From TrEMBL:
GO annotations of cellular component type: endoplasmic reticulum membrane
Cofactor requirement: heme
Binding residue positions for heme: 475
Protein name in UniProt: Uncharacterized protein
Membrane topology, record value: Peripheral membrane protein
Pfam families from the UniProt entry: p450 (PF00067)
Length: 532
């Protein structure tokens, strides 16, 4: 066991870069595995281990990994020399060119795919996430925002009738319900109302998949992160057979009904059906930028040449279903956390909340009588965009980017430091380290949307703002995520004033946990209706 764990401990010995000394048996992952630090602290500590390095080494348990600190090097790895770093880190779930029998949904999803297969799937899906497709889906998302507000109104009235001053709630739970309804309608083509029917089958399955309290899921997550080869050998799926069956049958059934009845609905199922027929393509106008100061959001990441290539691969049902499934995996927790953090920051920064409310109210008043909010109007609010951009800086839920080197790479810093990053090596780019580096963001702990005003955003150095990653492997859902977050903030702020309550933890602290992203005491606050 000792030999196995320490086998690679000399990996960095002949490399001209500093590295963190490993200790048996966890390498440098001890503090996180022993629950002594939060995920944010862990990756900040790794990032700050050698404050003057461009790149240094650490041990992710027994596996050597490079920590990339220099923004120029981030660009080099994620964009310029992307062909050497195409893949995300191995988890043991992934579908490779040579394991065609892989039937796992997560293993077939874009996040896990590798090499040429990833390139083809990215190019297939890319047209589904353009601005013009988001515009079509906007109404579906806006409906979910309005449903949430109606529910909040009713709860607030009940709370007042019972003698309270407003509706007090734990945000994460409620934002999870909103995220669930959005995924239901936008990705799976099903209307669900998790506010009035909090135990519907759809949310039960979603909670079961993303259940961070489940010991079994936690063990599996640790396995995928630290012993991926073993997980692959044991062929352990992340989903239970029941979860797998539910997602497959829901999507296949919806597709069948639509085909039989000729139903059209502007959602992901429709786009996947087009992808199956090979008719989902980039169209003229997809590129058209929104004519406003903010575009579609400062944080939006652009699609690269990879997403625009043509290919003639035909996809199986499993391969397509897996792409609807990633909305859960990549878009469920990320959105509900981002929204919870944004609402928390607005609660504890009254003046920022007041300014955002003014902008939202003015936008609402600019709509013609009876006209509903539009995609263009949503994107025309610069302060809303600043608040969202700063939330993603201060609370970068993805925490760290990872890349696997797919062929030997010659590192050369131009100042005499040269060495080889071998095929198979793992690289981490700690987003949270970059976002909290005072060199790039003075007083990094402070929530300050002004960092992203028209003047200041020009000065943000490339490679230092990474909420949605970078390069061709960036987040394909960034436009969708920003639209969803902005819709929720718009409707909530328009209708409610946010106030701290007795249970609000100030400052908010993250839980020390190896597998779970969680706050110590939940995120509590009080909603007061603006009309009462
Ligand atoms: C606030 C919300 C979100 C955040 C902060 C976020 C962040 C990220 C980050 C950092 C990555 C890795 C990028 C890289 O390695 O360079 C990623 C990948 C990805 N995200 Fe998101 N994401 C969000 C929402 C979504 C949504 C709503 C979807 C819906 C489909 C989505 C789908 C994906 C997919 C499919 C990938 C893998 C892309 C690939 O490997 O080609 N994400 N996301």
């Amino acid at each position: 066991a000792y030999r196995y764990c320490t086998k690679h401990y000399f990996y960095f010995a002949d490399k001209p870069i500093p590295f963190m000394k490993p200790s048996f048996p966890f390498g440098n992952a001890g503090p996180i595995l022993m629950k002594k630090v939060s995920l944010f602290d862990h990756f900040q500590n790794l990032y700050n281990a050698f404050p003057n390095s461009r790149i240094h080494g650490m041990f992710n348990m027994r596996q050597p990994a490079y920590i990339v600190r220099d923004p120029e090097l981030v660009k080099q790895i994620t964009v310029k020399d992307f062909d050497y770093f195409v893949d995300h880190m191995t988890t043991g779930l992934e579908q490779t060119e040579d394991n065609h029998s892989n039937h796992l949904l997560l293993g077939n999803s874009l996040v896990s795919l590798r090499g040429q297969k990833w390139r083809d799937m990215r190019a297939t899906l890319s047209p589904a996430f353009t601005g013009s497709k988001m515009r079509l889906m906007f109404t579906l998302i806006a409906e979910c925002g309005q449903t949430m507000v109606e529910y909040f109104r009713a709860e607030e009235r009940k709370a007042r009738a019972a003698g309270g001053t407003g509706y007090q709630l734990e945000l994460k739970d409620v934002m999870t319900r909103f995220a669930n309804d959005v995924i239901g309608t936008a990705a799976f083509g099903i209307k669900v109302d998790s506010f009035r029917d909090p135990k519907n089958q759809f949310i039960s399955m979603a909670r079961s998949v993303t259940n961070q309290e489940s010991l079994l899921k936690a063990i599996k997550m640790l396995g995928y992160t630290f012993v991926p080869k073993l997980m692959m050998r044991l062929n352990i799926d992340f989903l239970t057979p029941e979860e797998d069956r539910f997602f497959r049958s829901t999507i296949l059934e919806t597709m069948r009904t639509r085909e039989e009845k000729g139903i059209f609905r502007p959602d992901m199922i429709e786009l996947l059906m087009q992808a199956k027929k090979g008719s989902l393509k980039h169209q003229q106008g997809d590129e058209q930028r929104i004519d406003s100061e903010t575009g579609e959001g400062f944080a939006t990441v652009e699609e690269s040449h990879v997403g625009r290539r043509a290919h003639d691969r035909v996809w199986s049902d499993t391969e397509l279903i897996a792409q609807a499934f990633i909305f859960f995996f990549a878009g469920f927790e990320t959105i509900s956390w981002t929204l919870s953090f944004a609402l928390y920051e607005l609660t504890v920064h009254e003046e920022i909340q007041a300014r955002l409310y003014e902008e939202i109210r003015d936008t609402e008043q600019s709509l013609e009588e009876g006209q509903a909010l539009t995609y263009e109007k949503l994107q025309s609010m610069p302060y809303l965009d600043m608040v969202v951009s700063e939330t993603l800086r201060l609370w970068p839920i993805a925490t760290v980017l990872n890349r696997e080197c797919v062929r030997d790479y010659q590192y050369d810093d131009g100042q005499g430091v040269r060495f080889t990053i071998e095929k198979g090596a793992l690289l981490f780019i700690p987003i949270v380290g970059m976002h909290f580096n005072p060199k790039y963001y003075p007083e990094p702990e402070r929530f300050d949307p002004e960092r992203f005003n028209q003047e200041n955003r020009k000065n943000i150095q490339q490679g230092t703002y990474l909420p949605f990653g970078a390069g061709p492997r960036n987040c394909i859902g960034s436009r969708f995520a920003l639209m969803e977050a902005k819709v929720a903030l718009y409707y909530l702020l328009l209708n409610f004033r946010l106030l701290p309550c007795a249970k609000t933890q100030i400052p908010l602290k993250l839980k020390k946990s190896s597998t779970q992203f969680a706050t110590e005491q939940g995120i509590w606050l009080e909603f007061q209706s603006r009309s009462s």
